[in-house]
Write a structure and sequence with these properties.
The chain is mainly alpha-helical and about 190 residues long. The protein has a domain of about 70 residues: Alpha Horseshoe (Serine Threonine Protein Phosphatase 5, Tetratricopeptide repeat), CATH 1.25.40.10. Helices cover about 85% and strands about 0% of the residues. The chain contains eight helices and no strands. Helix 6 packs antiparallel against helix 7. The longest helix has about 45 residues. It starts with a helix and ends with a helix.
């Protein structure tokens, strides 16, 4: 009987270890997808202050992979560009922002075409619409996140983003449902 209990205990330890490896493997794939996306977005205008957030996001993905030197470089670049952004004129900011949103959408479409599971490309594309075109932009962002959830039904990030969009559209019940789904997926993931 002791051998049986020990055997079951070792089997459970092995299965738990495999489960952790799967989670770690999924987080690695997520970080690699983020790096791919944000690298392409940075290529649009690497020295543009509007790219600061992309450097920041890529830095956190590098940190998640344990690539701390690359993460620090990107974080430093993000700070440098953010300081530069504070010095630009309002009209210049508006013109650059409009062009950057178009470029972000184009790059996200390219990433989605090559990797439909890259939920972060859907999120960035939706974000590009959120600040433009008023209600029509919100509805377009919602369409994008609906598609993201179809392709990535287990992504807490997709549900969290759609929750925010529902909230902005004045649909608090749907927002709450998606937020709770995001929490559930995060907890189980």
């Amino acid at each position: 009987m002791r051998k049986y209990v020990l055997g079951v205990s070792f089997l459970l330890l092995f299965l738990c270890g495999c489960s952790n490896q799967t989670v770690n493997s999924e987080k690695k794939v997520d970080a690699e997808r983020k790096i791919t996306l944000y690298s392409k977005l940075i290529e649009i205008a690497p020295e543009d202050p509007d790219s600061a957030s992309f450097y920041n996001s890529r830095a956190w993905a590098y940190y998640a992979l344990g690539q701390n030197d690359k993460g620090k470089q990107d974080m430093d670049k993000s700070i440098q560009l953010s300081q530069r952004k504070a010095k630009r004129s309002e009209e210049d900011l508006r013109k650059r922002w409009i062009q950057q949103q178009k470029d972000i959408i184009r790059v996200c479409d390219e990433v989605i075409a090559s990797d439909p599971k890259n939920v972060y490309a859907y999120i960035e594309k939706a974000n590009a619409y959120l600040g433009s075109e008023g209600r029509r932009g919100l509805e377009k962002a919602l369409e994008i996140m609906n598609e993201a959830i179809k392709k990535n039904p287990l992504s807490p990030d997709a549900y969290e983003t759609r929750s925010t969009i529902y909230d902005l559209l004045g649909q608090p019940e749907k927002a709450k449902q998606d937020y709770e789904k995001a929490l559930e997926l995060e907890k189980n993931g």
